[in-house]
Amino acid sequence: MKLIVVDGLDGCGKDTHAENIRRLLKAKGEDVTIISHPSQRRLGRLSKRSLEGSGPIARLFATLFFTLDVLASVRWYKTQEKGTVIFVRYLLGTAYLPPSLAPHGYMLFRKLLPFPDLALFIDIEPDVALRRIKSRGHTPEMFETKPRLEAVRRLARQLTKNEWILIDNSIDGEAPFRQVETILRERNHGEEQLRTTSPVQ
User: Fold this and answer.
1) Which has the closest alpha carbon to 11: 175, 106, 119, 148?
2) Domain 2-39+81-183 falls in which CATH fold?
3) Distance between CA atoms of 136 and 63, rounded to whole angstroms?
4) Is the pLDDT assigned to residue 190 strictly greater than 60?
């Protein structure tokens, strides 16, 4: 069972990249499931509703419900035996915590939760993210302002600098998708080599 995570700022293109990965893996015959957080479960809906509010209480509930929603996905993931699961939003939810708490929160969940086989951080300039967010026409969320996107981006880049692969999605076009396709192809080639290598007798 493989776990791929696609994470990043609001408006960075996480769901689009996850769907592109699903399409590529399905074409190779793999069984692929995407779970995007906040999910459509009750916990996810409560997190989403809280994100549309404002103030510290709404932020607290958004964080709590998001965390519980992710934990529910992890519990489900651990029951699976084959295929690939793609989580959209996962450990980098901790980048939305206050700056003094974010690194500690990240390390706590990094130790407690399964780390993905492939961790992709979809990076984006906040101005570009805001433009894409506004084009959706949905109810604005509490973190969808330029100052908050800038703050979350700084924290996320710090948290992902060692174990994550950064994909720059600030420029429109196919280049970011081609980069992800190359990564998947190289990783799959390496796994096939391992499977076909006979142990030394």
Assistant:
1) 148
2) Rossmann fold (3.40.50)
3) 23
4) no
